[in-house]
Amino acid sequence: MDNREQVLDAILTQGMLPLFFYEDAEVSLQIIRTLYKAGVRVLEYTNRGKEALANFRYIKQAVKKDMPGLYLGIGTIKTGIEAESFVDAGADFLVSPIVDNEVALVAANYKLLWIPGCMTPTEIHIAQQYKAMLIKLFPANILGPAFVSSIRDLFPGQLFIPTGGVEIEAGNISGWFRSGVCAVGMGSKLISKQVLDERLYEQLHADTVKALQLVQLSK
Q1: Cβ atoms 111, 131 nearer than 8 A
Q2: Any idea what the Cα angle at residue 43 is, between residues 123 and 14, rounded to 5°?
Q3: Rounded CA gap, 212 and 204, in Å?
Q4: What's the angle, vertex CA 113, arms to CA 112 and CA 119, rounded to 5?
Q5: Is residue 218 a part of any domain in this protein?
Q6: Where is 82: in which H helix or E strand?
Q7: Which phi and psi angles does 112 have, rounded to 5°?
Q8: Which pathway does it operate in (predicted)?
Q9: Does residue 43 lie within any of the structural domains?
Q10: What total number of domains does the chain contain?
Q11: Do 115 and 95 meet the contact criterion of CB atoms below 8 Å apart?
Q12: In a domain, 219, yes or no
């Protein structure tokens, strides 16, 4: 099993992909430690600020040392240059909000899982030309589960993960899985600005455990 299959299997098993960015490297690390303690074994740090690369390098060192079995990917990758930089920093997989051929080529070159973001059947088709094993449906709150139900027969066997606005509620999560997704991305509804700014690690731990349980019940 190569790295792509290992990371994909981890996402499918977990059924949820937490994702966030925060300017402070130490807070970012504590968030990841909290997620790890709650049972998370694959997550996405996002390239949403000038501190992202330095933070990622810092976090990756701690992950290697203290968090065995954790796959750490990088999101919001829109160019080949960004992809190369974060691969060099040790990213286990790449996530994009778009379909970009340069990012696809970097991922293929390093045999890394690449999860491109799509919003239309045409974009999904293009992502498939680049051999995307898992496709992010983004923004999920605009598309909704009905979109997945409507298009999944057009793309038999394709794995989808909605990201953007997925709620920690049984009805919301189960609705997504009923529509045919294999996992859900959990961003600000799980790791909110308040959690980050106020260092609400106990709340995050409890919410993460709850979200993981809801996902397992919904799969």
Answers
A1: no
A2: 90
A3: 12
A4: 140
A5: no
A6: helix 80-88
A7: -110, 150
A8: Carbohydrate acid metabolism
A9: yes
A10: 1
A11: yes
A12: no
